[in-house]
Specification:
heterodimer; A: 514 residues; alpha/beta; 6-stranded mixed β-sheet; 27% strand; globular; B: 306 residues; mainly alpha; ABC transporter involved in vitamin B12 uptake, BtuC; 0% strand
């Protein structure tokens, strides 16, 4: 980012020996953090490492069990979000805290509204102030638009403006790029640049390494509640950062041997599918997946991927066309029959479609086979012993943490939730694995695990259909790459036949050079 | 003809009055994010408290205020269970629907030597414009309403003004839409929800008292029979807005007025069918026009700080 705006004589945040315990779980274990004025400081760590907890302590959401916090040299006592605002600390949460049917201006001034007379809202003044603020920091927003009508990137700007409106000098951004498109990420980095130029200090909570490299000056790495190191970002590589974060060496590229492709396992012919609004989203899609290969479907979100998947697994009616899995026509099959014909699916949204969050792990493992021997008797009585024995086995086999069969699925970290889904699916008898966005929202360690599982499946001679919006993932994993655009497969490449640029062009609807 | 019209419109306002109070009570509570299906019970207790105090003091206004205070206290129970203890708001509301009438009848037996009804009050709530227009004229029928009716409409106007024009209103709405957002901006979700739920009880109590001190002149067990639920339907039909609720209550009031008007004419419709009309209208409106699309986003969700 360039460190020309950092004032090294001016320490704005100093956290000393912060300990935060939840019951007997220690989320932060004597963490120290020093941030100078004008600095962009990354807090890097895996999901659940304790970085958000630390920032919630700084913001006053949580009270620390031990330790001291100094802001601008002044020790904080009786800390709460309210006086945190008074001390110039603002926080932009990962999940935006905006009132959907309020306007941008109303959201920004809420709690601190300009008034005319006693208690009367001065909406004109609010709009004026928001306009001024947005011009000063180069954060363009439309003050009178409703939140529900603006993009996620815009909503994030509203969140940043909320903190600036309250006079924030120190901004904490919690996973700011998790929900943004690549273009919005670039714009955000520009905004961050503008903010430090205006003398603000920024702390970014993240688990994305490239972000640390492209947007931050210094980086504090936290692993399992302990501060591992604080480094100058210019002095380290992404690989160093990843190792410090995960605690072991991390492979970015998955090793896989050459394999001879086997029999045809999935054949989709001229498939047409409509979405909920009755708009045709899949328009004559043709695709073939063979055993022993990973076929990656590259495409921008919204080009028919979701409808395509739902048509395969029987959740959505097929308008016309044919889907054959292992020789069986499953075009109009129900989800259960699709599953029994040897197709297993890692769905896009593990919390909505993949798991029953209020069920425990053992129960989640048997969602597809609870009616069958040995999990239920013929009269339909569940055999708890067998269910929990099976649960224990999968937990051990797939290294799910914490290893408690009675833990509710909703209480697990994202990576472990995904492991539960993978464990359940690939423990079914199957010849084809379909994975949609299998690494969404996961940290480096978990991504590595998921990728390895997919390659193992392929090596066992099964077909793998990988649908992802991350081009990197598709490029790194696939034996063949199919590009989807507006509900059609526009081209299929063998791995290495096309560059990232060519595929990117096709994904955007351009023509590839023959 | 014009006389009949005046009668129908006047009766509409009269019957709409308790509904307006209760419906506004529903609006204020749900706008802050607390579902209040206990309006029925709050109306009943308000009606009892109003009639009792009105009888013993001989002052209908004191009775009217007592109705508000009494149900405000019951509202407080709902607030404690929903806000402090994060209880299920529907369950708590059902409980209020039992507590309200139950307590009313129990206390009535205590105060009125074992009778489940109160003794009629000597002075009812006075009229708004007594003797200004000739008796039974159109204008007299239409405008010479009980004071409680005038106050009900004023309440709707005031609530509209507070919700949409003041800082307090913006904060109430924000708490009902996204309490977490409000909380992070230093707005006390607890205080706002408590005040709104208590206010909801007060308004429904005033509605009950307007029933027992203006429409009727005493409290009896069947005085409040489904009005709370009709008010709830009016709130939904009115899209959780004070002016919408007011309009919806007038429609329900009209249904009731037509029942009475048609019953008094020579048109022969069985009175059983006629008296079903407001309830059938409620069902039809709920089935046909209501989508929950405009409910406050956090309506019914207890807010727990992590």
């Amino acid at each position: 980012m360039g460190k020309e705006y950092i004032d090294y004589d001016n320490i704005v945040v100093e956290m000393k020996g912060i300990v935060k315990k939840f019951g007997d779980f220690t989320a932060n274990d004597h963490i120290d953090l020093t941030v100078h004025k004008g600095e962009v400081h990354a807090l890097l760590g895996e999901n659940g490492a304790g970085k958000s907890t630390l920032m919630n302590v700084l913001y006053g959401f949580y009270e620390s069990t031990e330790g001291e916090i100094f802001v601008n040299g002044e020790k904080l006592t009786d800390h709460s979000p309210t006086n945190s605002i008074a001390k110039g600390i603002g926080m932009v949460h990962q999940h935006f805290m905006l009132v959907q049917n309020f306007t941008v201006a109303e959201n920004i001034v809420l709690g601190n509204e300009p008034v005319k007379g006693k208690g009367l809202m001065d909406r004109e003044q609010a709009i004026k102030e928001v306009r001024e603020l947005s011009e000063r920091y180069g954060l363009y927003v439309e003050p009178e638009a409703k939140i529900q009508d603006i993009s996620v990137g815009m909503q994030q700007r509203v969140e940043i403006l909320k903190t600036l409106y309250r006079g924030a000098e120190i901004l904490i951004l919690d996973e700011p790029t998790a929900v943004l498109t690549p273009q919005e990420i670039e714009e955000l980095i520009d905004i961050i640049h503008n903010l430090v130029k205006e003398g603000k200090t920024i702390i970014i909570i993240t688990h994305k390494l490239n972000e640390v490299k492209s947007a931050c000056d210094y980086c504090t790495i936290i692993r399992r509640g302990v501060r591992i190191d604080t480094v100058d970002v210019d002095d380290v590589s992404q690989k160093d950062l990843a190792e410090k974060m995960v605690g072991r060496s991390v492979e970015f590229k998955v090793e896989k041997e050459e394999l001879e492709a086997g029999d045809l396992i999935l054949k989709v012919e001229d498939l047409h599918v409509r979405d909920n609004r009755n708009i045709q989203k899949v328009k004559g899609l043709n695709l073939e997946v063979y055993q022993g290969e990973i076929l990656g479907v590259a495409g921008v979100d919204g080009n028919g991927q979701s409808e395509f998947l739902e048509a395969i697994n029987g959740l959505r009616d097929v308008e016309s066309g044919k889907i054959t899995a292992g020789g069986v026509d499953i075009t109009y099959a129900k989800p259960k029959d699709v599953n029994e014909s040897g197709v297993v699916i890692i769905p896009e949204d593990r919390q909505k479609r993949g798991l029953v969050l209020d069920f425990n792990l053992a129960e989640n493992f048997i969602l597809q086979k609870f009616k069958k021997n040995p999990f239920a008797s013929e009269r339909g009585i569940l055999a708890d012993d067998e269910i929990y024995k099976y649960g224990e086995r999968l937990i051990k086999e797939f290294d799910i943490r914490p290893p408690k069969v009675k833990q509710l699925a909703g209480e697990l970290s994202g990576g472990n939730q995904q492991k539960v889904v993978i464990a359940r699916e690939i423990s079914n008898v199957h010849d084809l694995l379909i994975a949609v966005q299998p690494t969404r929202g996961l940290d480096v360690g978990a991504i590595e695990y998921v990728h390895k599982s997919l390659v193992e499946e392929r090596n066992k001679g099964r077909g793998v259909l990988l649908i992802s919006f991350e081009l990197d993932e598709i490029m790194g994993m696939s034996d063949r790459i199919a590009v989807i655009y507006e509900g059609e497969i526009v081209k299929v490449f063998k791995a290495g036949e096309a560059t990232e640029k060519e595929i990117g062009l096709l994904m955007a609807g351009g023509e590839a050079n023959e | 003809m014009i006389g009949s019209l005046g009668f129908v419109l006047g009766t509409t306002l009269m019957y709409a009055t308790p509904l307006i109070y209760a419906s506004l009570g529903g609006v204020i509570s749900e706008r802050s994010g607390v579902i209040n299906i206990g309006l029925e019970g709050l109306l009943a207790f308000g009606a009892f408290a109003g009639a009792t105090v009105g009888y013993y003091t001989g002052n209908p206004w004191l009775g009217f205020i007592a109705g508000g205070v009494g149900s405000g206290l019951i509202g407080l129970i709902h607030a404690i269970s929903s806000v402090t203890f994060h209880g299920d708001q529907v369950v708590s509301g059902i409980a209020i629907n039992f507590i309200g009438p139950g307590l009313a009848i129990f206390l009535s037996r205590k105060f009125f030597s074992g009778a489940a009804m109160t003794i009629p009050v000597e002075y009812k709530i006075p009229k708004f414009l007594p003797g200004v227009f000739p008796k039974y004229s159109f204008l007299d029928n239409l405008l010479n309403q009980d004071w409680t009716t005038v106050i009900a409409i004023l309440c709707a106007v005031v609530m509209w003004f507070i919700l949409y024009k003041t800082v307090l209103g913006l904060r109430i709405l924000s708490v009902g839409e996204n309490p977490e957002a409000a909380d992070t901006l230093g707005i006390s979700v607890r205080k706002i929800r408590y005040s709104c739920v208590i206010m909801s009880g007060v308004l429904a109590g005033l509605g009950g008292a307007s029933m027992s001190l203006a429409v009727a002149s005493n409290f009896f067990p069947t005085l409040i029979s489904g009005h709370g639920f009709i008010a709830l339907a009016a709130m939904i039909f009115g899209q959780w807005k004070p002016h919408g609720a007011l309009g919806a209550c007038l429609i329900f009031g009209l249904a009731q007025a037509l029942v009475i008007f048609l019953g008094s004419t020579s048109i022969s419709i069985s009175s059983e069918l006629l008296s079903m009309m407001p309830y059938i209208l409620t069902l039809v409106i709920l089935l046909g026009f209501v989508s929950s699309a405009n409910a406050p986003a956090a309506d019914g969700q207890p807010y727990e700080k992590e």
